[in-house]
Amino acid sequence: MTALLEISGLRVSYPGVDEPVEVVHGVDLVVPQGRKVALVGESGSGKSVTARSVLQLDPDATIAGSIRLGGQELVGAAPKIVRGIRGSGAGLVFQDPLTSLNPVMRIGWQIMQPLVIRGVSKKEARERGIALLDRLGVVNAAARFDDYPHQFSGGMRQRVVIAIAIIAEPALLIADEPTTALDVQVQAQVLELLHEVADERGMGVLLITHDLAIVAGFADDVVVMRHGEVVESAPVDELFAAPKHPYTRGLLGAIPRLDSDPSVRLTSVADYVDTFETVDDEPAAPAAENGAAR
Amino acid sequence: MTALLPARLRPSSSPRRAPRRRRRGVPVAERIALVVVVLIIVIAIIGPWIAPYDPYRVDLAQALQPPSAAHWFGTDVNGRDVLSRVLVGAQVTLSATGIVLLITLVIGVIVGTVAALGGRVVDEVLMRITDIGLALPSIILALGFAVALGPGLQSAVVAIAATWWPGYARLVRSIVRETRHAEFVESAVALGVSRWRLVTKHILPNSLDPMYVQVTLDVAAVMLVISGLSFVGVGAQVPSAEWGAMIASAADNVLNGWWALVFPGLAIAITAIAFNLSGDWLRVRQDPTLRDGGAR
């Protein structure tokens, strides 16, 4: 299987007070063609920074290592090449559909934009936009095409955001916590939609999330990050059945389950690893084996 | 039971108290103001044609006539019809104000945007120039221009524009700095949108709302400064029907010819108030979330 996205030895640092602060310490990650990879980890683990460095969205970040998208090296590439990748090589779905749409432009204009800036005629862009919006489950897409973002509900807006991200047919879709701002029911709909559309178009997906519950039903592979490093990387079934790293066990142990014994307390990640330890975790003996190892 | 509820929560039983359907958008005061603004602009355009007398014709026999059927606003010390001069003066004063604000807005938006997006050195240089501009008092500068270019409305316009743009540049810069970090801007970058398009379609349309308000508020302020400069003698010159110049020349005869001073003064006041009130309405209109009556 060919690798669509291949990240190796990625280091990202930001300017600090005295010296640059490195927040991602040598991450390796592969998204094979047409597969869905979930990048999970707690807040501040560097998962977003890792994913966003593919499109080099942050001008302050210093990126070292290697990021290859479809064989093309992006680290140190000319700005023109990076811009060409944005939108058509890799699309990005943002976390908050309430703030990631331009409030003064009609949603149709925003959906057509990735095509229009690539020289597609307005008429064709409009047809493709309406068709895509319709496919994404927006009722009466043609009529709503000229509405403003505030006239859409949160779930509908996230569909618009997805439409914008995939209309230029990127080979890779990066979804940065796409459902965090939505309620549980809409979360499920949006994820299912993402799953379907990705399969239809043969897109690879890199899903960034801190919610392990949505990973199981969505992803093929899981990469667990902590403190800017990858602690574990495995196919989803394997990871859930037999997590190798104590941190992963801690994460899984912290999920409430319907069949767990109500009298037994859920464990915290802190029971498995030292939360304040920054790098080089030695696997520690977990304090309790509740839930995680089953 | 219902008496316990505050009035606005009480179910209204009598048809008389049933809430009247408020027409969407423009409240009464703003609506009147808008009508006045339109009226003033129309007068500014057609003023010379509807003026009953030649505003520049001196007729000393008719000097300082009080308001009458023949001369509604009376005549000034030179026997010129005040109504005609106020009507024609609208054109002079408003076009000068408009030109000042146009120049100001263009320079302010360009300088502010470039400073906000252009990196630290560019920002520093432009903002220090802006500070210098802010430090210059427009009256003094206008006096300087009057010496250099000769006194006249053009000198006043150039002088006011030269001292007015820095405020706009600062405002635009601070708003653009905020807008460029908005998530929808980052999202546009992630789509491969060019820098030019990013600025013109994403950043500026979301940054200029406060500018429109500022412009309408400044119509009044700029008009007053133009009139003030004319009053001290470096703006519009004597025969001109500019409102400030009219007040200046009428000030000597305020006791026996108050009308020659009061009517151009009223014209300035009414125009200023009408533009200020319209500014708020314009802000509401520019915001699509308010325009369409909120979220569905």
Q: What features would you describe in this structure?
A:
Chain A: Keywords: ATP-binding, Cell membrane, Membrane, Nucleotide-binding, Transport. Chain A: This is ABC transporter ATP-binding protein. Chain A: One of its GO terms (molecular function) is ATP binding. Chain A: Its main location: membrane. The complex is a heterodimer of chains A (294) and B (296). Chain A is α/β, with parallel strands linked by helices and 294 residues long. Chain A contains ten helices and ten strands. Chain A folds into two domains: 3-242, 3-Layer(aba) Sandwich (Rossmann fold), CATH 3.40.50.300; 248-294, no CATH class. Chain A is 32% helix and 23% strand. Chain A has a six-stranded mixed β-sheet. In chain A, strand 9 (221-226) and strand 10 (229-235) form a beta hairpin. The relative contact order of chain A is 0.14. Chain B is mostly helical and 296 residues long. Chain B has a single domain, classed as MetI-like fold, CATH 1.10.3720. Chain B is built from eleven helices and no strands. The longest helix of chain B has 36 residues, at 82-117. The A-B interface holds A 55, 57, 83-88, 91-92, 94, 96, 99-105, 113-114, 117-118, 148, 150-151, 161, 164-165, 168 and B 182-184, 186-194, 197, 201-202, 205-206, 288-289, 292, 294-296.
